[in-house]
Amino acid sequence: MPINHHPLHSEFPDHFDAIHKLKENNAHFQRLMAQYEEIDKEIYRMEEGIETPEDAVLTEEKKKRLLLKDEIAKMISDAEA
After folding, report:
1. What is the pLDDT along the chain (81 residues), one digit of tens a residue?
2. What sign does the CA torsion over 22, 24, 26, 31 have?
3. Could you point out which of 8, 44, 71, 73 has its C-alpha 20 to 30 Å from the C-alpha of 27?
4. 19, 73 in Cβ contact below 8 A?
């Protein structure tokens, strides 16, 4: 089974304009995006076997990514309101 990254543009395909606007104008959103992308890359490396941490580490990273995604989703929703 192929392992995929979860970039924000594929996670929120219908919200390109809001993401772009937030990325351009909101430093907090920029930091969240950078954190999300870094964690997503780490998870990808772990799932590909490039890095081999304990399962608990992978699970914890996935939880962090999900929390960031939730916060990003809220900011996108607020921006579109």
Report:
1. 456 777 888 889 999 999 999 999 999 999 999 999 999 999 999 988 888 888 999 999 999 999 999 999 999 999 998
2. positive
3. 44
4. no
Which token pair is 4?
A: 């995929």
Please, are residues 26 and 4 in contact by the beta-carbon 8 Å criterion? no
Phi, psi of 54, rounded to the nearest 5 degrees: -65, 155
CB 31 within 8 A of CB 22: no
**Cα(69)–Cα(38) distance, integer angstroms:** 13
Radius of gyration of the chain from Cα atoms? Answer: 14
Residue with token string 């992978």? 58
Token output for 80: 């579109």
